[in-house]
Each structure stands twice: as C-alpha cells, then as structure tokens.
Amino acid sequence: MRDVDLPDLSFPGVAFGPQQIPWDLKPLLFKGGAQVHARDVASMIETGKLGRPLIERIELLRLIRESLLNFVDGGGRRRTVASCIDKLKRFFRWADASTTQALSLITVVECYRHWCDALLHRARVGRGLLERTAYGYGSIVGWVLDKVLGRATPLIKSTRLRCRKQGPRAVSPNADKQNLEEAFAFGRFLLDLADGLSAEAIWGPLPLQILMRNGKTLELWSGLKSPNTLKPPNPNWPAQSRQAERRAAQKRADWQAERTYRTRFSIINLRITAEMFMLMGQSAVNLAQAHQLRMDQWRFKPSSQGYEIRTYKHRRWGPVVFEIYSKYRVVFDRYLQWRKAIFPEDPDGLLFPFLGKNGTPAQRQSDSPPDFRSLKRISKRAGVAFV
What we know:
Blueprint: H1 38-46, H2 58-73, H3 78-98, H4 108-124, H5 131-149, H6 173-196, H7 199-202, E1 208-211, E2 217-220, H8 239-257, H9 261-282, H10 287-290, E3 298-302, E4 306-313, E5 316-325, H11 328-342, H12 373-381
Antiparallel strand pairs: 1-2, 3-4, 4-5
C-alpha cells in the first residue's frame, strides 16, 4: 500500500461519456503504470500491485496536468489532449523499461532526447515504425514539455527526429481532370443516396433498392445480412438445429417488420452522412463545425455566390452561419423537411443527429465527429471513389 499523499492528477470539469474512462495521470507516478489498462490501474494502485509511487515524478506530472488543463480551459480541443496523454504514456513506458536515470522535472529533457533517439533507431531498423510516425510521437510529447518548461525553442528541434517534407508533385492536366470527375461522381452518388433514402423508404419494407446514376443498384438491409450470404437450411440437421434455424428466421422477419430507430438507425445515419458531406462540399463549413450545428430558424439571404444562411430570432437577423450555392438550397430545404419527418420530437437538436446502436442518440463528445466507414463501404459497393 502507498504511504505518500499523492496530488490530484485527474481533469475535473472535463465531461466524459458513460463508456469513457476519465483522464488521470496518476498511473504515471508508478513504474509500469503506463503499461496497465486504464480500467484496471486504479485497483492495482490501491492494492499496492504497482509498488510505491516514484515521488521524483510528482512535480513533473503536476505541471503536465496543469498545462493540459489550461489548454482545455482556453478552448483547446479534447482530441488534442487525448493524443497528448496517449503519447506521454508511450514516453513513460519507455522510461520505465529502457532508462536507468530517474525521470523527473530535472532530467526530463535528457530522457526525452534519449527516447527520441530510440524512436529514430526503431524506425530506421524497420521495427514497425515509420520515421514520420516517430516524429509525430516526439513532436507531441515535446509540445507538452515545451509548455511545462516554458521553452521558446521547440524541444523537438534539439533531437535528431526530422519531419521529412514531401516535394511538390507534378500534376498533369489529365490528373486534374480525373480528380474533378471523381469529385463530381461522388457528389452525384451522395445525391442518389439522399433521393433513395426518403422518409417513406426508410420506414418501408426491407431491403431498400437505390438505383444509382452509374447503373448499379444498391441493396440496403439496414442491419440484416443479405439472404444471398446466408447458408441454406440443411434437411439433414437434427431437430434442435432446425428449431434454431426457425427461430433465426422469425427473428429476421420480426426485424424487417419492426419500423423503429432500432432497426433503421444504420440507413438513417447513412442519409445524414450523405447530407453532411454535401453541406461541407457546398459551403465553407468544415467537419469540426458541421457536426456541431444545431437546428434553428434558418433564413436565406441572397448573396453574390448564392445564399447566406443566417439565424433569425426576435425579428432580427443573426450572424452568417455559412454560405451555399443557389442550386444547393433545394437540397438543403429538402433535408430539413426530411429531418423534421424522421425526428419529429427533436426540433431543436443537432442539425445532423446521428443515432447509436439500438436507435439511441449517439454518445459523442462535442469535439469528436462521427466516422464515415459506412459511407466508404457503400461507395465502394457502388463503384464510386470516396472523395
């Protein structure tokens, strides 16, 4: 058991979802603590399985935590802090296993340089690490230590790690034309998805059949496997196996008959993803902004490029939220009507309200945008390059 009063190295005021583990730098006070899974490390500390805390690390970790907290409080992105903590754990794991010098505020610069040398050696001898990845690890930890030590010159510049810049590529007119054609084809693919995933189609029978402009037809089973991938029943199966097969068939039929968020969330999310991509392609809104936009009293004000989208409250124009081209207004208006039909009880929520499994609202932090793996898979099936 520990007999030292340890400082609070957690991050109060930072909200975490029910499935997320709150950040805490306390495990890094113990040799081997950076190696243990975050769900198990607290109990191992309490039971003494990690031994005594390394008191020489206390001041270093206290300042690291203070710097990261100040970064968050100043509006810094949570994802950046999460990446910093992950790379710091890599640094401390190396220090636990590879150095004979105690890691402390006084020795951290020397230890850091030795770690960067080890990263470079690992990359150059081909042990599963690219040089640009090694530089990424070193630069992130160096950035944190720069804040802790108040350095004017980045610490990474005192190491042998270098960011190798790629030279400019010669792009031919044919390559430019191909890129534009792929972008236009992807845009048409997104419109086809939006056309095929109307409210009537989503709540209708499965599978959905979406005819694409390239002549292909997408078959969407919304969480079910295509019957073509299922093994046919074997008449020689024993009675117990035949009963299990009948239960599976009934469960499949029940899923098709149930028309709720639970059984339709995947195709609802697919339409939302397509609409989000179209908005980003038509406006200056980036992903970090798009997934946080909320429903409002949108007003369209003509501009030189098309329309300024403003908010409208209490008889006054609000600020410009984003701008769109004229032809996209019909598409955006249609999406707003679709969203109202799909989410009638959420008129003031997110503009792009992704659903989680079982049809519940997706548990996402405000700076954690959704991934687009399903859209990538669908575009591959449709024979369209993902742009």
